[in-house]
C-alpha cells in the first residue's frame, strides 16, 4: 500500500501480508521524503537553522522552531523576555489546533466522511489566517528565533485572535454533531488500532495515543516550559486504547488549547520580544515595511548612514552568526503528536556541530504493526489515521 496511496498521510509505504481481507503482517517503509534537514543544519549558522527545522513536521512548524531555539538558548544560557515567551506559547497552541484539525480532516477523508475533511480544512484556514497575520506566513514560519521572536505582534493581531476565539468553540462543537454521534464513524473507530499503556511505553509512544490509553502524560504538565505551569488547563485522557479514544482526546485537546490562548492574551504585557544582547539578536530590528518583512528604516539608516561599526557588526552577525559555547543539551516540547525533542551539540562555533531530533511521528509509526495485525485491511487505514503521522518529521 503506497507510497502514493491517498490514505498513507504522505509518502509512506506499507507492506501488508493478507489472508483474504485480514492483515497477518504489517511493515512500514519510510524514507521517500528524505530532506536531510538534520545534516543541512550543520552547514548553516544558528539562526538560519530555524528555517530548516520548521519544515520537518510541517503541520506543527512552530513546535520545531520552539524546541530548536530553546535548545540553542539553553546552550547560550540566556533567558527570553516574558512577552516573547507568551507570544511563543500562544502561537504554538493555535498551531496545535490547526494540526489536530488536519489530523481529523485527513482521517475523515480516508474513512469516507468527506464533510469532516472539508470542515476540518475550513477551520484550519481560520487558524492559519491568524498565524499569517502574526508571522507573515501560513506555515514554515521561521518566526521563533534564538533569543525571542522575529517581530512583535502587528497592530490588530490581538483583536484578530479574540475574534478567532469567539468563533472556534461553536465550530468545534459542530464536529461532535457531524461525527461523534455518527454510527458509521463510531463503528470505523471503536476497537480499531488497539494499543494499551504497556504497548505504548514499550514502543516509546507519546502524545494523544498514550493519553487515549489512559496515561495523562503531557510535557506541558510533567516538565513545564515557557511558563505552562502557571496556566489553567486539563490533560484530556480516554480509557479505550483505540482510534475512537484518540479522536476524542484530540477533540478535547483543541478546547483546552483555546483556554490556553485566551489566558495568554490576557497576560500579554508590553516589553521587548528579543534579548537585549546585540551579539545574538538577529536580524537586528525587524518591522513590517512596504517590502513585506525587513529591517526597520531606522536600523537601515543607522547602519548605512551613521555608524561604520554598526554596519560591520550587522554584516558579521548576518553572514557568520553568533558563537554558541561548546556543550550539548536535550530539550523536549509537547507537540501535537507527542514528545518532540531536540538534541543539540555545539563545538563553540557559529554553526551547530549536530542537531538530532526525536520526532514523535517517527517513534509513533512503530505502533503500526501492533495496531494493524489481526485486523481488516480497512482498519489499517483507521489505525494509521489515528497515529496522525507527518512524513516530513519522519524522514527529516
Describe the structure.
The chain has 396 residues and is an alpha+beta fold. The chain is 49% helix and 13% strand. It is built from 17 helices and nine strands. The strands form four sheets. A three-stranded antiparallel sheet has the order 7-8-9. β7 and β8 form a beta hairpin. α4 packs antiparallel against α5 and α12 crosses α13. It is a peripheral membrane protein. Its EC number is 7.1.1.-. It is an enzyme of class 7 (translocase). Keywords: Cell membrane, Membrane, NAD, Quinone, Translocase, Transport. Belongs to the complex I 49 kDa subunit family.
What is this entry, summarized?
49% of the residues lie in helices and 13% in strands.
Topology:
Blueprint: E1 13-19, E2 22-29, H1 37-41, H2 49-53, H3 61-76, H4 82-110, H5 114-135, E3 144-145, E4 148-149, H6 157-180, H7 183-189, H8 197-203, H9 208-211, H10 219-222, H11 243-267, E5 286-289, E6 292-295, H12 297-306, H13 308-319, E7 327-335, E8 338-346, E9 354-358, H14 360-364, H15 367-372, H16 377-387, H17 391-394
Antiparallel strand pairs: 1-2, 3-4, 5-6, 7-8, 8-9
Helix-strand category: alpha+beta
In the sheet with the most strands, the strands line up as 7-8-9
**Most strands sheet:** 3 strands, antiparallel
Order of helices and strands: EEHHHHHEEHHHHHHEEHHEEEHHHH
Number of helices: 17
* Total E-strand runs: 9
Q: β content, as a range? A: 5-15%
Please tell me the overall pLDDT: 92
How far apart lie the N and C ends?
22 Å
* Uncertain ranges: none
The general outline is: globular
Structural Rg = 22 Å
Helix coverage percent of residues?
Answer: 40-55%
Amino acid at each position: 500500500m503506497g507510497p502514493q496511496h491517498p490514505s498513507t498521510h504522505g509518502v509512506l509505504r506499507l507492506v501488508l501480508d493478507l489472508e483474504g481481507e485480514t492483515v497477518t503482517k504489517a511493515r512500514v517503509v519510510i524514507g521517500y521524503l528524505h530532506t536531510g534537514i538534520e545534516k543541512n543544519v550543520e552547514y548553516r549558522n544558528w539562526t538560519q537553522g530555524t528555517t530548516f527545522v520548521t519544515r520537518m513536521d510541517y503541520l506543527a512548524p512552530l513546535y520545531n522552531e520552539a524546541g530548536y531555539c530553546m535548545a540553542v538558548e539553553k546552550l547560550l544560557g540566556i533567558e527570553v523576555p516574558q512577552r516573547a515567551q507568551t507570544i511563543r506559547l500562544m502561537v504554538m497552541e493555535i498551531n496545535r489546533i490547526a494540526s489536530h484539525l488536519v489530523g481529523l480532516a485527513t482521517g475523515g477523508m480516508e474513512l469516507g466522511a468527506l464533510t469532516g475533511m472539508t470542515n476540518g480544512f475550513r477551520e484550519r484556514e481560520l487558524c492559519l489566517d491568524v498565524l499569517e497575520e502574526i508571522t507573515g506566513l501560513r506555515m514554515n514560519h521561521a518566526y521563533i528565533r534564538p533569543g525571542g521572536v522575529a517581530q512583535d505582534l502587528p497592530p490588530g493581531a490581538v483583536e484578530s485572535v479574540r475574534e478567532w476565539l469567539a468563533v472556534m468553540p461553536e465550530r468545534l462543537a459542530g464536529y461532535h454533531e457531524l461525527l461523534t454521534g455518527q454510527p458509521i464513524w463510531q463503528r470505523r473507530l471503536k476497537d480499531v488500532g488497539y494499543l494499551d499503556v504497556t504497548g505504548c511505553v514499550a514502543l516509546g509512544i507519546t502524545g494523544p495515543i498514550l493519553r487515549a490509553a489512559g496515561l495523562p502524560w503531557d510535557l506541558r504538565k510533567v516538565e513545564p516550559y515557557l511558563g505552562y505551569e502557571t496556566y489553567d488547563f486539563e490533560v484530556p485522557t480516554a480509557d479505550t486504547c483505540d482510534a475512537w479514544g484518540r479522536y476524542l482526546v484530540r477533540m478535547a485537546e483543541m478546547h483546552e488549547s483555546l483556554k490556553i490562548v485566551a489566558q495568554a492574551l490576557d497576560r500579554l504585557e508590553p516589553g521587548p520580544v528579543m534579548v537585549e544582547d546585540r551579539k545574538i539578536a538577529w536580524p537586528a530590528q525587524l518591522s513590517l515595511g512596504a517590502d513585506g518583512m525587513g529591517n526597520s528604516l531606522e536600523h537601515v539608516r543607522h547602519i548605512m548612514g551613521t555608524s561604520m561599526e554598526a554596519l560591520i557588526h550587522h554584516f558579521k552577525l548576518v553572514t557568520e552568526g553568533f558563537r554558541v559555547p561548546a556543550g550539548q543539551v536535550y530539550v523536549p516540547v509537547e507537540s501535537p503528536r507527542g514528545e518532540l525533542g531536540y538534541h543539540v551539540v555545539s563545538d563553540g562555533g557559529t554553526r551547530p556541530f549536530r542537531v538530532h531530533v526525536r520526532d514523535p511521528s517517527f517513534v509513533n509509526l512503530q505502533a503500526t504493526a501492533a495496531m494493524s495485525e489481526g485486523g481488516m485491511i480497512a482498519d489499517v487505514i483507521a489505525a494509521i489515521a489515528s497515529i496522525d503521522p507527518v512524513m516530513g518529521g519522519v524522514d527529516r
